[in-house]
């Protein structure tokens, strides 16, 4: 490269890092920045355990380990600082872009490499995930490193290629498919030594993890034990969407529930304890049995997954990128996206590269192989990220072909327009899922509720309900909305939602208890007693309702009802002093001094220093003299 070319390269790389840094700074102080959620929370917890408790762990890896170990090392050296973690990730992501540039420069030329670099530097999904507490950016960097190794004219290039994908397999295990496909291609081309180097390079990076699993868990697990559970999640009778839908036997979706949930269900069905590899094999077998018994369904669901993978819509997982744009002007900026214009350009580039298919052959193979490796599971936006660097090579090739010819070849133009239209056609909800922000609003509401921002929580719950009215048929959702209204001081709205929760859920005591408390605070003691009694009818052990129920009757001068409401709970709670104190207070109000003395002494036997009980005891003794 000339000096001018090096300066231009440095400028674009600096701009790429600056965009990522600006995103990080714009998100600082916004929701989720200092409170990781879902997978981010799992990685953060795991990294902290590595840094502070146990480096090796105590069981075979279920999730890919590279990113949590990177976090653990960072936490150990620098502390748990989410700002600097993100900045380091942005630097690594920018270094990956340089690898992509250098690979394309060596494979094609400098101008094409610069186009690929600019597209990657301003590709919105790259920018976002370089700043997110998730492993995805490392998968991209691994593919970029593999492309760089492939472009080299060195004897060891294939070993480096395999090593890059081997490291990548510790981030995204399906990158192992690219190792095997490349080795197979080289064998077909009678390059046995090169094929061996690819496999050796990958195994050298994977072997430490395999050995660690064997030593720690006394089990053979190549990298992780989640292949079977993931395959079953995407291929089972309960999931015909192509998206992520956790099986019903899981308590909930999310890393903290998946590993233990799949293990428990497999052990229940097998009737014995299972090792991690056995759990993996069990669910892999179940998934393959389902696919074999339902080939038509599998083909149909796989086609849905293909449509999602090739559509501009970024199927949200931990984060919804368009929704997150409300918190950052960077995400609202007109950056490149899959539909505008990476995928259409890549499609045109693939057509233009076809006459030189022997030269571009490995890129075609890697793109197709990675695509297929996702199609048998389920689809999220972040899952296709490692495919993008390969597409950028083709996209840049298309751009420079047009520039050099000063015209768009007719066939390539047709492909570009067709791809532009196809990838940007909105998928129906039955395939791509909802494109609105119902789930994002709900998740943000939960975030606000747990961070003492109840008014904002209520607003987000209401936004979610407007988009998905079925939420209002869910008692827990309505209950949470009522709680947000109560905590924000909007008692009438809270009362309305709690009463609806009482109707939706005829079993839980919590909602009628909340209704009763709100009526109590409004001085409506008859209504308060009605709902507090209902809470105790639903659950006689729900002691929180007992004292306000007794107090409601006392304020209505219904002393007999107040005392009756205390008797059963007192008998069932031999260590509860506050109920005995309440009884003593009511007896004193009735001037029943013997009963007052007895109840006060009962209270003091459990809480000797209780001042109100001491006062009532002394008062009763004085009256009884």
| Major β-sheet annotation | none
Whole-Å distance between the termini?
Answer: 107 Å
Q: How many individual domains?
A: 3
Write down how many β-strands occur, each being a DSSP E stretch of 2 or more residues: 0
User: Which runs of at least 5 residues are low in confidence (pLDDT < 50)?
Assistant: none
Q: What structural category arises from helix and sheet content?
A: mainly alpha
Radius of gyration, in Å, reads 31 Å
Estimated share of beta-strand residues: under 5%
Roughly what percent helix?
Answer: over 70%
Annotation field: number of helices = 32
Q: Estimate the global geometry from the Cα principal axes.
A: elongated
Mean pLDDT value? 94
Would you write up a description of this structure?
The chain is mainly α and 625 residues long. It has 3 domains: 3-223 and 312-424, no CATH class; 227-293, no CATH class; 574-625. Helix content is 71%, strand content 0%. Helix 4 (82-107) packs antiparallel against helix 5 and helix 23 (454-467) runs antiparallel to helix 24 (475-487). The chain is elongated, with a radius of gyration of 31 Å.
Features:
mainly alpha; elongated; single chain; 0% strand; 625 residues; 32 helices
Question: What's the SSE blueprint?
Answer:
Blueprint: H1 3-27, H2 39-52, H3 66-78, H4 82-107, H5 110-121, H6 124-130, H7 136-151, H8 157-169, H9 176-188, H10 192-217, H11 227-234, H12 255-270, H13 276-293, H14 295-309, H15 321-324, H16 329-332, H17 342-353, H18 357-375, H19 388-405, H20 410-424, H21 429-432, H22 438-450, H23 454-467, H24 475-487, H25 491-504, H26 510-521, H27 525-538, H28 546-555, H29 559-572, H30 577-589, H31 593-606, H32 611-623
Helix pairs in contact: 1-4, 1-5, 2-3, 4-5, 4-7, 5-19, 7-8, 8-10, 9-10, 9-18, 11-13, 12-13, 17-19, 17-20, 22-23, 23-24, 24-25, 25-26, 26-27, 27-28, 28-29, 28-30, 29-30, 30-31, 30-32, 31-32
